[in-house]
Amino acid sequence: MSRELKDPLYEQFARVGKVLGSPKRLELLDLLLQGERSVEELADLTGMGVANTSAHLQMLRQGRLVETRKVGTRVFYRLASDEVAGLLIALQETARSRLAEVGDLVRTHLSDEGESEPVDRKELLKRAARGEVVVLDVRPSEEYAAGHIKGAVSIPLEELEARLDELSRDVEIVAYCRGPYCVLSRDAVQFLRSKGWRASRLGDGVSEWRLAGLPVAAGEK
Predict the structure, then answer these.
(1) So which residues are the catalytic ones?
(2) Intervals of CATH 1.10.10.10 along the chain
(3) pLDDT profile of the chain (221 residues), mean per 10
(4) Topology, domain 3-85
(5) Closest C-alpha to 66, from 9, 26, 94, 93
(6) Its pTM surpasses 0.85
(7) Where in the chain do CATH 3.40.250.10 domains reside?
(8) Into which CATH architecture does domain 109-217 fall?
(9) Can you give the chain as a three-state secondary structure string?
C-alpha cells in the first residue's frame, strides 16, 4: 500500500476513533442503541445541558455515526446503521475482556450476592419455546415500542410493583433492559425475588439480540 493511500486512509479511520474518545459521546450512542431520541431527551438522560448535548451530537454526526430528522424546531437523533451499533458493542466487550477495571466496576455495581448467572440468549430461546419463562422488558415504554425481543412483556421498572398481578408465579421471569451494563433488570430481579417470584436476568439487551439475528418486534404491546 502506497504512502499516498496509507496516510489519508488512516486519517479517516482516526476520525471515528476521535469521535469515540469521549465518555459522554459513548453514553449518547448507548442511549441511541435503544431508539431515536430528541436532543432534549438525551440531555435529560445524560445530565448535560442541551447546548453541551447538542455539541457532542454534532461531533457524532460529523463522524457519520448518527443521523437526524427534524420535526418543527425539534431535532431527533438515531444511530446511522447497525455497523455503528456493532462497533459500540464490540468496544464495550473489548474493554471488559482487556481492562480489569471494567470487571471490578461490574462486580461492585451490578453483581448481586446470591444471584445466579445471567441467562444467555441461546438458553432463553430454548426455555421460551418450551413455555418455561416469561420475558420481561423493564425499559421505558418508548424504548420497548422502538424495538423489543419478540414476545416480551413490557412493564417499566417504575411500574413493576403496581403491575405484579400481570405476572404469573407458575413460570420464571427473565428480565432484560438496555444491555449488560444497565441496572434496570438487576433491580427488577431483586424486587421480584423479594416478592416470591422466580426471576433472573438476560445477560445482554435487545441490541445484542437484534445484531445476533434473533427476532425483534417494534410497536406497542
Answers:
(1) 177
(2) 3-85
(3) 87 94 97 96 96 98 96 94 96 95 88 74 92 95 94 96 94 94 93 95 92 89 58
(4) Arc Repressor Mutant, subunit A (1.10.10)
(5) 26
(6) yes
(7) 109-217
(8) 3-Layer(aba) Sandwich (3.40)
(9) CCHHHHHHHHHHHHHHHHHHCCHHHHHHHHHHCCCCEEHHHHHHHHCCCHHHHHHHHHHHHHCCCEEEEEECCEEEEEECCHHHHHHHHHHHHHHHHHCHHHHHHHHHHCCCCCCCCCECHHHHHHHHHCCCEEEEECCCHHHHHHCEECCCEECCHHHCHHHHHHCCCCCEEEEECCCCCCCHHHHHHHHHHHCCCCEEEECCCHHHHHHCCCCEECCCC
CB 168 within 8 A of CB 136: no
Residue type, position 161, single letter: E
- Residue in the block written with cell 425483534: 216
